[in-house]
Amino acid sequence: QLKMKKLLIAALVCFLSVLAVADDCKYTADDGTHFDLSALRDSSTDFTKKTDGGGGGVVFSYAFAVCKNVQKECQNIASPAAEFLTTPIGEGCRVLGSLAKQTWKLIDPSNPKRGVQIKYADGDPCDQSNKRSVTILIECNEQVSGLGEFKSVDGQGSCDYTYNFASPYGCPATSHHASGYFLLFFVLAALVYLAGGMIYRYKKLGLRGKETIPHLEFWSEVPSLVKDGVQYSISKTKQLVITVKDKIQNRNQYQAI
Can you tell me the distance from the alpha carbon of 123 to that of 159, in angstroms, rounded to the nearest whole number? Predict the structure, then answer.
């Protein structure tokens, strides 16, 4: 019975771990309105916007990611949002916030259907008493194609920036977020299958130890399959690291503004 309990606890821990990963980019407002930005988090590229700095070859570039840090770092600092400056005489950048200082709320509490906003605080120093921050307004727009459109930037050069982003994922969670609910259903079904099968084999068939696990032969092959997958991933990651290092060595490093 002790071994049986340990196996069930291990299955429960695995289930809770999957839920934690699945829910790390979701938000439920006080009125119960639910938003799922997992698709934006899983984007393979940063969301970017370029603006003219007033002529003379000056260009500002803005980047952000949702629930993770942007791929292009500023000052070798991991951050979810940044401002990059390109001029004829050089380049610079500002860190606009920290992933550890992420907060959520509705764009308009009186109208939840307008969308949701994420604020990243604790960026580069702005003045003697304040640090830079950025608020990303993810407005509900079902007509925008793909993941969304980075429309504009407000507050350039100030302490508090605002990124305006239109996306179908800024709308309260509906059918186009069904994949997340399918994953939850799949995990729950797997847990019921495992726990129910183990209990049946333990009580009805009198089996003990690992023999209580349903379809043991299949599951015994899983570690070797996982090992092969991990080795393949490590190999691809090493190749990517080498490629990135080569690119870094061949470009100028950004300096803080």
Answer: 9
Token pair recorded at residue 55: 């002529």
Query: In the block, which residue shows the tokens 């916007």?
Result: 49
Each residue's pLDDT tens digit, 178-187:
455 556 666 7
Specify the DSSP element, H or E, that contains 165: strand 160-167
For 7-52, give the DSSP string.
Answer: HHHHHHHHHHHHHHHHTTTEEE-TTS-EEE-HHHHT-SS-EEEEEE
Which amino acid belongs to residue 67?
C
- How buried is 171 (Cβ within 10 angstroms: 0-12 exposed, 13-18 middle, 19+ buried)? buried
Strand order through the sheet with 149-154: 102-106, 115-120, 133-140, 160-167, 149-154
Question: Among 38, 33, 85, which Cα is nearest to 65's?
Answer: 38
106 three-class SS? strand
